Amino acid sequence: MRHLTTALAALYAGLIYLFIFLPVVVLVLFSFQDGTLPVPPLNGLTLRWYEAIFSDGKLMAALGNSLIVAIVSSAVACVLGFLAAYAFARYTLPASGLLRGLIVAPMTVSTLIIGLGLLSVLNLTGLRLSLVTVGIGHVVINLPLCFAIIYASMGGHQVNIERAARDLGAKDWQVMLLITAPMLLPSILAAFFLSVTFSWDEFIVAFLLSRFDVTLPVEIWSMLRSGLDPRTNAIGSVVFLVSVAFLVVMELTVFRKKAS
Amino acid sequence: MTATAYERAERRKAWAFALPALLWTGFFFLVPFAYMAAISFWTRQGREIVATWTLDNYVAFFEKAHLFKGLVVSLEITAAVTVISILLAYPLAWIIAERVPKKWQRFALIMAILPFWTSYVVRSYSWLLVLSKGGVVNQALLWLGVIAEPLELSANRIGTIIGFVHFFVMLLTLTIYANLIQLSPNYRRAAADLGANAFQTFWFVVLPLTLPGIMVGAFLTFVLCIGDYITPQILGGNNELVLPQVIMLQLGRRADFPMAAALSLVLMVVVTLAYIACARWLKMERT
What we know:
The complex is a heterodimer.
Chain A: H1 2-29, H2 48-54, H3 57-90, H4 96-104, H5 111-125, H6 131-153, H7 159-167, H8 172-183, H9 185-201, H10 204-209, H11 216-223, H12 230-252, H13 254-259
Chain B: H1 5-39, E1 43-45, E2 48-50, H2 56-63, H3 65-98, H4 102-113, H5 120-131, H6 136-144, H7 157-180, H8 185-193, H9 198-209, H10 211-226, H11 230-235, H12 243-252, H13 257-286
Antiparallel strand pairs in B: 1-2
Helix pairs in contact in B: 3-7, 3-10, 3-12, 7-10, 8-9, 10-13, 12-13
């Protein structure tokens, strides 16, 4: 009886893992398809679709755009989030609950609504859609997250160290930059990397707020119009590989440090 | 009471630190949101938005079948996805928490998350490779002789639901697992001492205690599922549109901002109602 339930459990878990892994395995496998259709039968293995995407100027430009938008918008979100967290944790502001609520509010609203709202206001101002507008949208999405993560890690135990620094003559900016920020580095990095992954993968805001320069998800989206295409498999596999490498690095550096 | 110069300086500093974030959220979130709420009560003439206050957009939503049906389809798909995902995820979460050795549990969870590190758009696309007429599933079933004709698994509701369930099984497994490992084994021992069999222990003791994990996951599933545009657009075809697709349609072909804004607010009201319905469990999770 015990053996039977264990076997059933293993079978069930196996089936669910198969379901979870099926699409990504198919994606990667048929990125090597020697033929123009990335579906069975597998005709043979080739690297020409990888060659095709790495020599595709538009695709590589989109990849670069995605990296820039992700890194810059995450950095801005982290700086704004850190400053605000410092203000709310170290000083008493009037209506502080309400103001903190305002900063985290975008987290509760769908990105479609954030994008639509920004688009309608931008139409009004006549500002041109570009990577900058995409970046602005991504900061709106990521700021609540950065603020929440950094605010949560600003405990009272750091206050005494900051006070000691002030007693020794450190100015405010020195305390913040040389004392507080290094102490909070694990959570600041966690917030930054989480923002980078969200921004990297974000579609709706990037789609609504960009025109000529687009990010990678938007470029892949426009590739989908040509239907099933091994080039889409190849770029998808590259993104998967980069993300997994990123995940491994994060697991080994940021989260390990945090745990110890 | 007058503040001392020191207090005033401190307060000014506090504002200086908080203001950049507050202004950013104010300018790029609050103002756009308020403006969008306003134009949902305006109309358009041609491509221009005209600021005349009217309820026309909301009336149209309830009266025009193709708009209202978007919400109905969204709710049906979201409900199906939530229920199926819970039913599939619970046993997996239980197996990982109870049957997998402690030191392998983290690995099992990481493996469950791993396939979701592709780009979101690519993930939906890769389901197309699996589900389309010439796709892996149909080819395999044809080859095995189970079916004579390819099944219609994409470009319809089935495709959308499978694509969604894929993601939310993983999400719900995480929330339910997190809940399961917090349960003290004493509950189960007590139930067994009092004469409950395995089924009774599960149904009357374990299941109610893991309700918070289920509800947190279900709420996230509901919110993320009903607001999503990508999965239904790629896997669902054009016969049955969900609400986000209807919203995007207003923008694209018709450039009808007021209508799109009104529909977005309808979507937000639905999400808020779901939050109110689940609030009891969501709070329990936080403490």
